[in-house]
C-alpha cells in the first residue's frame, strides 16, 4: 500500500566500504576502522574539524549522514526533520574506555570529553548540530537491525504530524566492528521506493 | 484514535517502593538525598539518593530469586510487578507491549571479572530488557529507549503513540537507572555534582545530585481503567534537538521551547491551559537558566512549576518516568508540591516556582526534560471529564 512516504536515499558503511543508494563511493582495503574513517573523511572532503573530537560511534554516524544527505533538498526545514537511530551495542565502545580510566585507583583519570560520549544518542546530537536538525529524536536499542521497530516508530511520527522528513537507521560499533545503514524518509509518492518495513529490511540485507 | 489512558503506576526509590509511600514522603517534605560516606560507587563522600540493597533484595524475594537478576533488572521487575497489581492489564497478552527506558542499564557489571558472574551478554540493554520480558512471560520483543536524560519522558510519549496507532492495546513503560562508579566518576569529572542537597532554580544552586530508582506507568486504551476515581490520558508530547552543543544546554532555551510548542499543538491545548508544570530542574547553573528562558518564551511564566530533584536527585533515564508518576499523582491528589531546596530565585526567565504545598485542580499538566546530546522532551497529561 502506498503511504505517501518514500525512501529517498540510503547509505551504508561497512567492511571498509561506503555506498550511497547501492553505489560504492569509497573503499579502502585492509584498514582498521580508525584508518578507514579518516581516509573516508579526506576522500569525501567533509571539512568539519569537530569530527576528530568525536568517538567512533559518532564518527561513523556522522560520516554516513554526510554521504546520505549530500544530495538532499536544501529547502528542508530543520525543525521538521526527525532523527531516529538504533543499534545493538549502545555506547559500549566508549563505555569501556571510560571504565579503563577509573578501574585503577592509582591511575584514576576520568575525562569529561570521553564521558560525554558514553550515551548512544550523542551521535544524533552530532548529526543535528551539523545539519541544523531540531526535530524529533529517538535512540532505540535492539539485538539486531529491526526494520519493524524503526518503521512503526517513524510512521507514528509522520502520522502525528511531528515530522515532514526523517533520518532513520542503524549505527553500531564495538571493538573495531562497525555497521551503519541510514535511510532518508520523505513525503513523496514514489511507488518504487515506497517506505515499507520490508523494503528497509531488503535494502539492509542486500547491501551486506 | 484510542486515547492512551493511565491504568496504574509505581515508583521504586529510597523514599519507598509504592507510589503512595513516595507521594506521602514528598508531601511531607522528606528527601531521599543523604551524604554517602562509604558507598563503593565513589572514592570520596558525595550526596545522593541511593536504594538500600538489603531492603531491595528482601522485597524482591516475594516475587523471585534476587541472585538471578542484576540490581538494575530487580528495580524494573519489582516496580513493574507492583504497578501491574493495581491494574487489570494482562502482561502475558500479545496485545501488551513492554518499553524500557534507561541511560546506562547494567553498566556496573563492567567493573568486575566475568561481569559479576552474569556473563558478557548481560551488559547489553536488549539482553537486560529480555530478562524482564522473560520474567513476566510477555510474548513481544521489548522496545528499549536510551536517549540520555530525556529517556523516561520520551518513553512515555513513544508508548502513548503506540496506543494511538493501535499497535498495542496496553503498554508497560518502565524507566530505571542505578548509581555506579561509572556514572559517579563521570559526573565528578564534569564538576557537575553539588556537595549538599541540590537547590533547583535557586540563586545559590551549584550542581546536581545523583539518584537511583525506577518508575513504571501502565498505559491502556481501555476506558474502564480508573485511577483513584479519575481518568487521566497522555494527551500529547514531542521531542526536539538544540542542534547546538553535545554536553551543554542551549543558552536561549530554543530547543526546549520548540518541544513545548509542539507538545501543546499535539495535545490541542494552549500554554494558558496548563495548570502545572513538572520541570527537569537539575540545579546546575546552565540547565535551570535555560529552562527558565524556555518556559517564559513558551508562555508558561505564570504556571506553577516545581522540580523533584531535591527529593530524588537526578535519576537519569528513570527521572522522566518517576516524575511523570508524581505529576499524575499530583493531579489525582489535587496537590502542587513545593520545590525542595528552593528559596531565592536565581534564574533570569520569569517563572512561578512552587514554594509551599498548595491544593489545586490540575486539569492539564506538563512534564519536561532535557539532556546531553541537546535533546528535549515535553509531554502533557490531561484529566478526561
Radius of gyration of chain A: 17 Å
Q: Mean of residue pLDDT of chain A?
A: 95
* CATH homology-level superfamily of the largest domain in chain B: Thiolase/Chalcone synthase
* Interface with most residues: A-B, 55 and 56 residues
Distance between the termini of chain B: 18 Å
The total of helices of chain B stands at: 10
Strand count, sense and barrel status of the largest sheet of chain B are:
6 strands, mixed
* Helical amount of chain A: 25-40%
The CATH topology of the largest domain in chain B corresponds to Peroxisomal Thiolase, Chain A, domain 1
Domain count of chain A: 1
Considering the chains and any ligands shown, give keywords for the structure.
heterodimer, A: 208 residues, alpha/beta, Peroxisomal Thiolase, Chain A, domain 1, 7-stranded mixed beta sheet, 7 helices, globular, B: 385 residues, 2 domains, 6-stranded mixed beta sheet, 10 helices
Walk me through what this model shows:
The complex is a heterodimer of chains A (208) and B (385). In chain A, strands 3-2-1-7-6-4-5 form a seven-stranded mixed beta sheet, with helices on both faces. Chain A has helices spanning 33-43, 56-68, 92-103, 112-115, 122-131, 147-159, 197-206; strands spanning 5-14, 17-20, 23-27, 81-87, 137-141, 165-174, 177-187. In chain A, helix 2 (56-68) runs parallel beside helix 5. In chain A, a hairpin with a 2-residue loop joins strand 1 (5-14) and strand 2 (17-20). With 208 residues, chain A is α/β, with parallel strands linked by helices. Chain B is an alpha/beta fold. Chain B contains ten helices and 16 strands. Chain B has a six-stranded mixed beta sheet. In chain B, strand 15 (364-371) and strand 16 (375-383) form a beta hairpin. Chains A and B meet through helix 3, helix 5, strand 5 and helix 6 of A and helix 4, strand 5, helix 5, helix 6 and strand 9 of B. Strand 5 of chain A pairs antiparallel with strand 5 of chain B, so a sheet runs across the interface.
Amino acid at each position: 500500500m502506498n503511504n505517501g512516504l518514500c525512501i529517498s536515499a540510503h547509505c551504508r558503511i561497512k567492511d571498509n566500504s561506503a555506498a550511497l543508494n547501492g553505489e560504492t563511493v569509497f573503499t579502502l582495503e585492509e584498514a582498521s576502522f580508525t584508518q578507514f574513517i579518516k581516509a573516508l573523511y579526506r576522500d569525501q572532503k567533509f571539512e568539519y574539524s569537530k569530527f576528530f573530537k568525536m568517538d567512533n560511534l559518532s564518527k561513523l554516524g556522522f560520516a554516513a549522514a554526510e554521504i546520505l544527505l549530500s544530495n538532499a533538498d536544501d529547502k528542508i526545514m530543520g525543525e521538521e526533520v526527525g532523527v531516529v537511530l538504533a543499534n545493538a551495542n549502545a555506547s559500549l565502545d566508549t563505555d569501556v574506555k571510560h571504565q579503563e580510566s577509573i578501574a585503577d585507583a592509582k591511575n584514576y583519570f576520568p575525562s569529561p570529553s570521553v564521558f560525554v560520549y558514553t550515551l548512544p544518542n550523542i551521535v544524533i546530537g552530532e548529526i543535528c548540530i551539523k545539519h541544523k536538525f531540531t526535530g524529533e529524536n529517538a535512540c532505540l536499542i535492539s539485538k539486531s537491525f529491526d526494520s519493524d521497530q524503526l518503521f512503526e516508530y517513524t510512521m507514528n511520527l509522520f502520522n502525528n504530524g511531528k515530522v515532514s522528513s526523517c533520518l532513520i537507521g542503524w549505527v553500531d560499533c564495538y571493538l573495531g566492528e562497525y555497521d551503519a545503514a541510514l535511510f532518508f524518509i520523505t513525503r513523496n509518492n514514489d511507488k518504487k521506493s515506497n517506505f515499507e518495513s520490508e523494503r528497509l529490511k531488503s535494502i539492509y540485507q542486500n547491501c551486506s | 484514535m484510542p486515547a492512551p489512558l493511565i491504568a496504574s503506576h509505581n515508583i521504586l526509590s529510597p523514599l519507598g517502593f509504592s507510589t503512595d509511600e513516595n507521594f506521602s514522603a514528598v508531601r511531607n517534605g522528606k528527601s531521599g538525598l543523604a551524604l554517602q560516606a562509604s558507598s563503593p560507587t565513589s572514592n570520596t563522600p558525595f550526596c545522593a539518593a541511593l536504594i538500600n540493597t538489603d531492603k531491595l533484595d528482601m522485597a524482591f524475594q516475594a516475587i523471585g530469586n534476587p541472585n538471578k537478576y542484576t540490581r538494575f533488572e530487580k528495580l524494573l521487575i519489582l516496580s513493574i510487578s507492583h504497578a501491574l497489581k493495581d491494574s487489570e492489564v494482562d502482561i502475558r497478552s500479545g496485545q501488551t507491549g513492554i518499553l524500557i527506558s534507561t541511560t546506562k542499564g547494567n553498566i556496573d557489571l563492567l567493573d568486575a571479572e566475568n561481569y559479576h558472574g552474569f556473563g558478557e551478554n548481560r551488559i547489553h540493554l536488549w539482553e537486560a530488557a529480555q530478562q524482564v520480558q522473560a520474567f513476566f512471560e510477555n510474548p513481544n520483543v521489548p522496545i528499549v529507549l536510551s536517549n540520555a536524560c530525556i529517556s523516561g519522558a520520551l518513553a512515555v510519549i513513544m508508548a502513548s503513540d503506540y496506543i494511538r496507532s493501535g499497535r498495542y492495546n496496553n503498554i508497560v513503560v518502565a524507566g530505571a537507572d542505578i548509581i555506579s562508579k561509572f556514572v559517579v566518576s563521570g559526573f565528578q569529572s564534569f564538576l557537575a555534582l553539588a556537595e549538599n542537597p541540590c537547590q533547583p532554580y535557586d540563586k545559590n544552586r551549584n550542581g546536581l545530585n545523583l539518584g537511583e530508582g525506577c518508575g513504571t506507568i501502565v498505559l491502556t486504551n481501555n476506558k474502564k481503567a480508573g485511577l483513584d476515581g479519575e481518568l487521566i490520558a497522555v494527551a500529547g508530547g514531542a521531542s526536539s534537538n538544540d542542534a547546538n552543543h553535545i554536553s551543554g544546554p542551549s543558552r536561549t532555551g530554543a530547543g526546549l521551547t520548540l518541544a513545548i510548542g509542539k507538545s501543546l499543538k499535539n495535545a490541542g491545548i494552549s500554554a494558558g491551559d496548563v495548570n502545572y508544570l513538572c520541570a527537569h530542574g537539575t540545579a546546575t547553573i546552565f540547565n535551570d537558566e535555560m529552562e527558565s528562558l524556555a518556559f517564559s518564551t513558551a508562555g508558561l511564566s505564570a504556571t506553577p512549576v516545581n522540580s523533584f530533584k531535591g527529593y530524588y536527585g537526578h535519576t537519569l533515564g528513570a527521572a522522566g518516568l518517576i516524575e511523570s508518576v508524581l505529576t499524575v499523582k499530583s493531579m489525582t491528589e489535587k496537590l502542587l508540591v513545593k520545590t525542595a531546596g528552593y528559596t531565592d530565585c536565581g534564574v533570569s526567565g520569569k517563572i512561578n516556582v512552587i514554594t509551599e504545598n498548595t491544593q489545586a485542580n490540575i486539569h492539564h499538566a506538563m512534564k519536561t526534560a532535557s539532556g546531553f546530546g541537546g535533546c528535549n522532551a515535553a509531554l502533557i497529561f490531561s484529566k478526561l471529564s
